Each structure stands twice: as C-alpha cells, then as structure tokens.
Amino acid sequence: MVSFDHREPGTSEDAWAAAGICERPRPLDLDGVDALVVLAAHPDDESLGAGGLVHRVGERGLPVTVVVATDGEGSHPGSSTPPATLRAVRRREVVAAVGELCPAVRVVLLGLPDGGLREHRAALERGVAAALDLTGGDRPLLCTPWRGDGHRDHRVAGEVAAAVADARGVRLVEYPLWLWHWGDPAGDDVPWDDLRGLALSAAEAAAKEKAVAAHASQVRPLSDRAGDEAVVGPEMLRNAARPVEVLVEAPAPRDRPTDDGTRGARPGGSLGRDFFDRFYTGRDDPWGFESRWYEERKRAVLLASLPRRRFRCALELGCSTGVLTSGLAARCDRVTGVDVAEAPLAAARHRLGPDATLLRLDTPRDWPDGAFDLVVLSEVLYYYDRADLDRALDRVLGSLTDDGVVVACHWRHDVPEYPLGGDEVAGRVRARPELGVVAHHEEEDFVLDVLARRPCRPWRARRGSCERRAAARGARRRARARRGGAAARVPGLRAARGRASRHRASGPRAPRDGRPRRVHRRERRRRARGRPARARHAARRRGRGPVARRRRRGADAPGRGRSREAPSRGRRADLARVHRRRLRGARALARPARRARRGGRDVVVGTVRPRIEELSPDRAAAWLASHEPGTANGHVHGANLGVRLSVYRAAGGFAPVPEHEDVALVDAARRTGARVVADAEAEVLTSARLVGRTPGGYARHLRDDLVEADVAAGPTSR
What we know:
Helix content is 40%, strand content 16%.
C-alpha cells in the first residue's frame, strides 16, 4: 500500500508543465533499436506510459511484444463486480488497446495475481525472458514500469525487468505513471537527470489517445454504485495526453561503480540509512505489512514457531512499522525494536505506544544495551554485506542469554539491489557453531529457522540423561561395595540392589524395540480403554446403539445434562453427549443446560476458547477472522447441550461439512427468533487436531444419527 490515493486530484499537469516536463528531458535515442518488449504490471500501463513508443517502433516494421503481468482484477476492491468478471473485461480491453497502437503487436498475458507480483518473481522473470527470446533482435529495448513509481507491483516489475536486462545486456528504459500523481516537481524524488523525452507526432498522439480510451473500465466508472469510480482520473489523463512521452533511462547496474571501485550488479556494501529514507518517502507501508496475505501468513508462521509461550525480553532487528513487533509484545514481558530509518519508527511508536522500546540505530555498528532471550531477524540480514552480516551475528550472540532463542526469516527470491540473497543469509546463520537448529521451515517464498545456543536438547532428552546418570551412580556404588568386602558389612546394600533392580525393570530402554517399558504399559492401557468406545461408535454407525433403539421405540435417549423422561410433544430436545475427558468442566456444561431448559430456552451453547498457540497458523488465522477473543462466542460443535430439532430445521439444517458449522448454526438460529444462551462458564476448548472423535465429523453425527433416526421414528416421537 502506498500513501497516495488515486481518487484525490494529485499534482496538476499545469505544475508539471510549469516545471518544464516537456522541455527539460533529453531526447530518447532509438537509433540501433531493432525490437521492443514492453512490460506492463496491469492492463492500461502500456498505453498510459509507453503507447507512443509502441506505435513508433511498430510503424517502423520492427517486432514488438507487450507482456501484461496481471489481469488487473484488483483495480476496484470496493466494487460489487466479481473479480472474475473484471478480469475478463480487462483482458479484452488490453488486446483492443494494443491493437489501436499497432495491429502487428504480439500480446502476452501472464495472468499473475494482481497485487502479488512479489510472490511470483520467478514466473514474471521467466515471462520477460521468454518475450525477449520470442521477439528476437540483436539490440532489443526493454521498457518497464519505473521502479520508484510508488506502487508495489510497478516496483517489483521494474526490479525483475532490470535483473533480466542486466543478465542479458539489454538496454532498459522505464515509464513512470503514479509519479505524476504524487510527485512534487520541485522535490528530490523526480530523477530529472535520468528523464528522457519522446516527442510524439500527431498520428502517435492520436493512436495513444484511442488506446487509453479502450480501457473503459479504468477511465470511466463501472456504474453509479460506490466503489465503481474511475481509477484513472482527469489529471492522469492529461499526463498521458502530453505531446512528449517521458521515460527514465538510468545507467545499467553493471556500469555503476561500487565502493571498492569494481563494477557489478549488486551494491558493494551494506544498504545504509539513505536508501531506506528514500524508500519510505511518500509511502506509509511500502512492503505491504498491513495489507498483503503473504506478510500476514508469514507473521503467523513465525509466531507459531516460537518454542516457548512467554519470553522475558525480545529484540527485533529491522522492526519497520511495528506490525510484527505488536505480535511479539503479546508474548514477551519487554520488547525492543530497532530500525535504521526514522519514518517507520514513527509509525511503530504510534502503533505500539508504551508497549515497546523503539530505537533508531545504525546496526551492526550501533547496538542496544541489555541481554535478550529472544532475537528476531525477520527479512533484514540481506541488507548487510558479508562483513557486516558476520558482525551483526556476533552482536546477536553477544547479547543472547544462555537460554536464548534466535528466529531468522528470509525472503528467498533474488533482489538485485540487495547485497546478499535470502538463501545465502539463511545458510550463514545456520552455519554458526554457537547455534543449533531447533526448527526449520522452507517454502518457495521464504525460509524460517529457529535456533538456540548449543546444546539445544529437548527436556525429555535431558530427563533421560538424568536417569542414565542415576543408574551409573548406582553401578559405581555397587562396584565400591564389591571391592570393600562382603555385602553384609555394607549398610543398605540389599535395599540399594532392590532399587537398582526395579530401575532396570522400568528403565529408560526396553530390550526389544528400544522404547521405554512405561510406553508399552501406557499403550496397553490406551488400547483397553479404546475397545468399548470403538464398539459404541460402530454400533451407532450401524443404527444398533442404545440411542437408536430408544428412538425407534419413540423414547428420548438419556444423555448428560437432561432428564431421562421423554419431553412432551413439541418440546423435544436433541442433546449431544459431552465428552467428559476432552472438555473442561463437563458438569458445568450440564448445569446451564438444565437451567435453560426449565426456563424454556431453545438453544444452549458453550463459549469457545481455543488454545491459539496450539493451532496451526492457517487455523488460527481462520478462527481470529470470525471470532473475538474474550467474548462469548456461541459454539455448538462438540458441546451441543440443548437445541430443539425444530430450531435446527428452521435454521436451514446442518452444514454438509464440519467447518464453522457451529457458529453459523447459532447465528442462523438467532435469526429465526430462537432464544439462545451462550454461557461464558461453559467453556469448549478446541485444539489443533484435524480428525474428529466422532467418525465422519460431529455435523454428520447430528444430521444422520439424530435427525434421520427421529424421522424414521415417525410422528409418535414428537
């Protein structure tokens, strides 16, 4: 997300004209260009930013290819128009628009997600490289969105194209779009020295005007409804109608000298404060911490990977606007956030207030005081060069407590502007001999490592070591007793031998499969307990259980928290059993059910309180999206205490799958006018298990065993 709003007027074209936007840029040199590839992040970028260039090169009879990265389905996020419909409309529009510029132009639609180019860099890079191969030419020109345009997809498209151009030695020019909206002609953000102008003929200007008009979904409102306003405003149309098309042609990365005098694609040293100050200028959230699903999911995975529930003092390096810092503050007594730029720290202070200590430090030269038992390095280490990276890791280990944990997360795709890559950084962190890997998570976009000081053995292994040491001490005592003479002269030797014998019988290792004997005993007890439960479930599935027999006789099946007498006609209640070993406070669940039924209530439900830290990141995110922690959320699943069958039917019946059918059913029951009680004392604890205790799921049990049995029993059971 960027700080500007396309619905605002922005900088007027008159201000740009007064600054000499048509006169100051040097002419664009097209001599020797024998092919053209234009990359557009969204449909209409190619017409607004490079329509005149496409027409000129195409009219010369040279091959031209337009690559459109996304379908632009996210252009109207507040619209009622489905994204699939908007995607099809914009695809048709871009083909028609490019046809207005030059009929012979080849159009390539990659179909990548709108707003998600950062997660699909590899696919975008392959598309650009294939277009260059397809277009041919010994001296092709690659034209892309400007990397400093202030739009995330434009920046990523420009970075990927720049990497391809540098690898292949292809000339690169970039076209700004949103710069004309948010930029200040007198400010430092306008690259005046790198601007190039292409003076358009009357035919080129007319073709560009028709191409822009072909994007009707962007230059005109979709409808009169809110959220369907035009994306391209009047001033932006005036920018596109200039007699001169303005582009940016900066020196290729291979031609820029590095700090050591050499020339190469990557910068020669760590990225400093000036880089980040420029990067945050005019942008509230340049990386999309608050808006992108990738960032939200990555934070959930990182927080779920923390090996302890609470930490004493945490340090986050590169805290930026404090979105992850707020999640760490909920798990730590004290949190210190560090960043090199002042702009994101100001946003973090506004977000966190007194909940965290936020410092502007130029790490690794500067470092916060104190010791930390948690250090979080989230997508920050590849901004260092190798020397600074080693110094930063030395500083981390110097401030890490003996029981400290280091969490390192890195973006895996290559960014030419960064000194190092994510995979190299992750490997150098894992290679530190002082740290051992506790957990490792790797996927296409990022790699996550949880590390701790060596030795980092789990507590069960440490307990086994204690038992082995105790056995060794007993063996040494027995050896000393044998060396000292007869056993009768050693006080307590017989008792010690008895204890050693018992220890060997229940020792840490079994003689056959290597597992402790107590594990075998525990499994035998579990199998013995499980036989009756499996038999009951099998009988229930076959319709031969006690509940089904009573329903066939027309009597109500007794269950926990209800009377054994069949209710009168019209007041029958279908009550599920409460699993006493799995739900906390089973008696507390039954008491409110009896009280509510005596008061004529229709639905009695518990209050769900999951252990968020035990849920997977996806399940935790799904639960938090539909619930508010600390409130009485009506929960039927697994603790259905008193719901009338008529209420179920009035609410639309049971869901086909047990995914949130509990909350949806309670809400539907409320809409029918049912009297619903959500008792805050009747807690239903959820966990991370994916397989239900009832075969087929609890919704299937209610739908088939209760409802179908009731229907089969006939009207006499009502």
